[in-house]
Design goal:
single chain; 505 residues; alpha/beta; Rossmann fold; Biosynthetic Threonine Deaminase, domain 3; 4 domains; six-stranded mixed β-sheet; four-stranded parallel β-sheet; 20 helices; 18 strands; 41% helix
């Protein structure tokens, strides 16, 4: 079978019945900071607040009329679902959308409002997709794949066509988020055939690295699990066709963290007053990291802002973590002598810097442990502050990159207990839905007492939960079995210094 002629398919794609040619906007504040011209391709301005409408409509517009009349089915955590629902509405056909039960409510509600039938199934995209295949067979529907389909890829490729038409001057690199790979495959297939000098750089969240791992291995790699902070790109297996095109056209892939993604959301808001979802901001986060690691200057860099379906309740988490990603706040655990004058000397070291958080509770006659957040202009300043604490005779541990400290300990300082014998501490990720906690509790040995529990609702797909349990050493094997059979991601934090200083008895 011959390979698709993507240049021809993109030039003839049917997307503009429903999609608009989105602007290529300047990002002046970001450009000044990075020393290069940064342009944002604003796919968040589509009617469904995402680029997905392009590929979905192009696929459905090219269906045989009889297939379209029977109806279509799709699987998606949200953005592709909205694109298929809108396309079905415009083309006058029925649509069934299978979504994971963890999909953000803003996306589920949007799909239903466009007249599609929503079926919630499973906790991950892969579980939902297998169910969609079963329904496709039962009902005789046509599958509209979210990324691994030539017509879907061609539809997304019209973004690359627009970028080159909108900016006739030289472009050094285009940054594109990667989930299953449809967006970057389409853009790269067009750009590299027209302007092969332009770098195509993919960006993935560091907990969903399917394409990066596959390109490194030279074959498609299945991930055992993916993080769901960037739910729009949380894919365990990339597409066969998208992988082939990425091998051919993608120059490199940059990995970014949750904190770096949150900082990028803030950057886009500063320049545009628009709020991107995490997947929508990945390309901007990758562009920033690329500039910082390569020290390039005076270049023209384009990032595709590919989605803005953000749950409002998630903004609290994003705001908290943005300063870490931008390296604007450092967190320290500082030990000071429990004696007169120590606190004053501590404040003298901090000097005129803004204190963003300060937590302390007396717990020892000789020493005091202080949990403090301090505004910093860069990681270099945080390192200088650590040296200043040391020079003043204060033992200080930099917790800025410590997930336990950032997500939980800062809300629990002062919680030591002499009664928490044989305590082990674990971080878990629970599905953000009713019944998840009950499943956890009923799976536990009733002899293991919960001695610490911390949870905050961040409006995300997964709840971040900290649990202390009193597990006698003799139950070690049974506890290990409990962790393995539970089915939730977990991290042992029993030796974490933040826990030892502020929480452990």
């Amino acid at each position: 079978m011959s390979e698709p002629d993507y240049l021809r398919m993109i030039l003839n794609a049917r997307v503009y019945d429903v999609a608009v040619e989105t602007p290529l906007d300047d990002a002046p504040a970001l450009s000044r900071r990075l020393g290069s011209e940064v342009l944002l391709k604003r796919e968040d301005m589509q009617e469904v607040f995402s680029f997905k409408i392009r590929g979905a409509y192009n696929k459905m517009a090219h269906l045989d009329p009889e297939d379209r009349h029977r109806g279509v089915i799709a699987c998606s955590s949200g953005n592709h679902a909205q694109g298929v629902a809108l396309a079905a509405n415009r083309l006058g056909c029925d649509a069934v959308i299978v979504m994971p039960s963890t999909a953000p409510s803003v996306k589920v509600d949007a799909v239903r409002q466009r007249g599609a039938e929503v079926v919630l199934h499973g906790e991950s995209y892969d579980e939902a997709f297998h169910h969609a295949l079963e329904l496709q067979e039962q009902r005789g529907l046509t599958l509209v794949h979210p990324f691994d389909d030539p017509h879907v890829i061609a539809g997304q490729g019209t973004i690359g066509m627009e970028i080159l038409r909108q900016h006739g001057k030289p472009i050094d690199a285009i940054f594109v988020a990667i989930g299953g790979g449809g967006l970057i495959a389409g853009i790269a297939a067009y750009v590299k055939q027209v302007r092969p000098d332009i770098k195509i750089i993919g960006v993935q969240h560091d907990e969903s690295t399917g394409m990066a791992d596959s390109l490194r291995a030279g074959h498609i790699v299945d991930l055992a699990e993916v993080g769901l902070f960037s739910d729009g790109t949380a894919v365990k297996r990339v597409g066969g066709e998208t992988f082939r095109l990425a091998q051919q056209y993608v120059d490199e892939v940059v990995l970014v963290s949750t904190d770096e993604t949150c900082a990028a959301i803030k950057d886009v808001f500063t320049d545009t007053r628009s709020l991107l979802e995490p997947a929508g901001a990945l390309a901007i986060a990758g562009l920033k990291k690329y500039v910082q690691t390569t020290d390039v200057v005076d270049q023209t860099l384009v990032a595709v802002a590919c989605g803005a379906n953000m749950n409002f309740t998630r903004l609290r988490f994003v705001a908290e973590r943005a300063d870490y990603g931008e390296q604007r706040e450092a967190i320290f655990a500082v030990t000071i002598p429990e004696q007169p004058g120590s606190f004053r000397r501590f404040c003298e070291v901090v000097g005129s810097r803004d204190v963003t958080e300060f937590n302390y509770r007396i717990s020892d006659e000789a020493e005091a442990h202080v949990f403090v957040g301090i505004a910093a202009s860069s990681r270099d300043e945080a390192a200088e502050l650590a040296d200043a604490f040391d020079a003043a005779g204060f033992a200080a541990i930099d917790l800025t990159s410590d997930e336990l400290a950032k997500a939980h300990v800062r809300h629990l300082v002062g919680g030591k207990s002499a009664h928490a014998s044989h305590e082990v501490l674990y971080r878990f990720e629970f599905p953000e839905r009713p019944g998840a906690l009950l499943r956890f509790l009923t799976s536990m040995n009733p002899a293991w007492n919960i001695s610490l529990f911390h949870y905050r609702n961040h409006g995300a797909d997964l709840a971040r939960v900290l649990v202390g349990m009193q597990v006698p050493p003799s139950d070690g094997a049974a506890f290990d079995e409990f962790l393995e059979t539970l089915g939730y991601r977990f991290w042992n934090e029993s030796d974490n210094p933040a826990y030892q200083l502020f929480l452990s008895s």
